[in-house]
Structure formats: C-alpha cells, structure tokens
Amino acid sequence: MQVFKLPDAQKVFLDILNQIFEIEKKLEKIQESNTISRNLEKLKNIFATELYADQAGLIIHNPLGENYDSTRIDCDASIAGESTENLVITEVIKPIIHYRSGGINHIVQKAVVIVQSKDTINQS
Predict the structure, then answer these.
(1) Which range of residues forms the domain containing residue 26?
(2) Disulfide-capable partner of 118 in 37, 45, 66, 86 (CB 3.0 to 4.6 Å)?
C-alpha cells in the first residue's frame, strides 16, 4: 500500500495532529487531566468529521502495544534489543494518520515506533 499524499496546503494538518498526539502523551503523566483530554478529543473529532466534506477526515491512530512484524506497512520501526521475534510496539514517536474517504482509510503518515521482543519485556 502506498502512502496517500495530501495537497501541500493541507500538510499543516499533519503538523497539528502530531502536536495533539504529543500533548496526549504528556497528559498521560499528569493527574486529573480529564478536562484537557476532553478538549483534545473535540479537536480530533473536528479533523475526523468536520474538516472535509462527504464524511472524509483525518484520523490519528496510536499503535502502542500492538504487535509488529516486517510486513506491517503503516509503521517505520527501530528495534530495541537483539531479538527480532515476537515484537511489540513499546514507544510511539509519531502516530499513524489516516485520511478516511468513502469508507476507505488511506495512510498519510506512517508511525515512527520503537519495537521490542515480548520475551525481552517480560524479563525486565
């Protein structure tokens, strides 16, 4: 699958969504972040449902904790440790961003992730 290219004028949307993702990661470390999280969810909903016509939109997907193998085309991964078997995504630097149109999701940004063997994680 090929990465879908947004028009140059809309690439700023990817920057905004990446910033929203970074804020969400930082909020995980703060207690009582509910009100800020609610605002971020509203922003993500605007991108997903209200920015484009005809039920199209941009959607952030955080693949943290998902399995990873070399056939996965939506992530660019760096492997932590020496084992390359039973890999799981342990850190997400940039999320996957999809452009949804006509019920079909197109990748507009691959995730940048760090993966590690489940066996190594269980030993820690």
Answers:
(1) 8-123
(2) 86
